[in-house]
Amino acid sequence: MGNMYKTELIKRVAKETRLSQRAVADALNASQELISDTLKEGKTVQFPGFGTFYTRQRQASRVRDMRTGKDLAVAARRVAAFRVGEILKRAVRGGRRTRKQG
Question: Consecutive sets of 10 residues in the chain, 102 residues long: mean pLDDT of each?
Fold first, then answer.
């Protein structure tokens, strides 16, 4: 099975919910913006059972440029992260599905 991209997700959600692809795309885009804005504020976004989007601080480090062999400094920075929830973990392992079967 191949990867699922945003356009395929929109098509499948539209079919599953009987909403237009445009309505689903608008909702998905708005959700992405709201999650991003919330993370920029340093807050978390939780979907119980599915997972939690949050930010964490990465320490400064040193890396080597493989092309030139030069040592480079990488500044400390805040990065986005995702912690998987229990229901999603079970679903991926082949356990209970994440939504009602119908």
Answer: 92 97 98 98 96 97 94 96 96 72 45
Distance linking the first and last C-alpha atoms of the chain: 23
Amino acid letter for position 40: K
Q: What is the pTM (predicted TM-score) of this model?
A: 0.76
**What does the domain layout of the chain look like in residue ranges?**
1-40, 44-102
Residue at 3: amino acid letter: N
State the fold for domain 44-102.
HU Protein; Chain A (4.10.520)
Give the separation between CA 26 and CA 82, rounded to whole angstroms. 23
The single-letter code of the amino acid at 101 is: Q
Neighbours of 86 (CB within 10 A): 12
Select from 52, 51, 23 the least CA-distant residue to 38: 52
